[in-house]
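FORM 7B: Structural annotation worksheet

SECTION A. Query
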Amino acid sequence: MNGDVLFLWNGDIAQEYDIQITRDKTLSDWDRQTVTQYTVEDALLYDSIGIDVRLPGDSSNNKMMYSGKHSMVSRNSNIYRSKTIC
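SECTION B. Predicted structure
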């Protein structure tokens, strides 16, 4: 069992979002999507997982971190929650 983590945020599903995932200390490339959620598969293989969500052209940080024991949301974030899916 590796488990999945689902990150959810408030927003318009017609809006595009730039998303970057950090698994442990490895950053993914930025990915543009039109959804307000992102699932990281096999989450239990990592000590920590982070997500940064931005509007295209906006450089503000909207980060959320998940460590398996708790999650943290940066104060200037529109991201609100994550949950583990097993």
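SECTION C. Observations
Residues 75-81 have pLDDT under 50 and may be disordered. DSSP finds no helices and nine strands in the chain.

SECTION D. Sign-off
Analyst initials: ____
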